[in-house]
Design goal:
Elements lengths: L4 H15 L7 E9 L4 H5 L2 H11 L9 E6 L4 E8 L10 E6 L9 E8 L24
Parallel strand pairs: 1-2
Antiparallel strand pairs: 1-3, 1-5, 3-4
């Protein structure tokens, strides 16, 4: 996991640059797609480096970074979960982003993903905790 930390920071910084900076980010998530020659635990090694990288660069993030992983053949897709960066119970930010590539992962490859969002789902009507009501102490509310 230590050797993946620089990659996580580089990927997270690139996302921040593309999306306009840390103050624009409201949601995040991470995931891994493991080629069929690997095992699910290989993807689990991305949890700490990927999640901590985003939380390090997003100074105000309190919520755990949601994640998913799976072993698949070439062309496999993954729906990476997204939640609010400060309060996991903010339903307007429950979302996902599909990631994948037509020619990966090969049997001995792994796809590592970080995702960020700049706002809630469009036309949210799910109710629950509103962004304006976040307390931000425990990562949940």
């Amino acid at each position: 996991m230590e050797s993946l930390k620089p990659l996580g920071l580089s990927m997270a910084q690139r996302l921040l640059d593309i999306l306009g900076g840390a103050d624009q980010i409201e949601g995040y998530g991470k995931g891994a797609i493991i080629g069929e020659g690997g095992e699910l635990e290989h993807g689990a090694l991305w949890h700490a480096p990927g999640g901590y990288a985003m939380r390090q660069l997003l100074a105000d993030s309190n919520a755990i970074v949601p994640s998913t992983k799976k072993v698949t053949g070439v062309g496999g897709r993954l729906d990476v979960p997204i939640t609010h960066i400060n309060a996991s119970y903010v339903r307007s930010h429950f979302d996902s982003m599909e990631v994948g590539s037509n020619d990966t992962p090969r049997a001995n490859e792994m796809v590592l993903a970080l995702v960020m969002s700049t706002g809630p789902r469009i036309h949210n009507r799910a109710g629950g905790l509103d962004v304006a009501d976040i307390i931000g102490k425990d990562g949940l509310r």
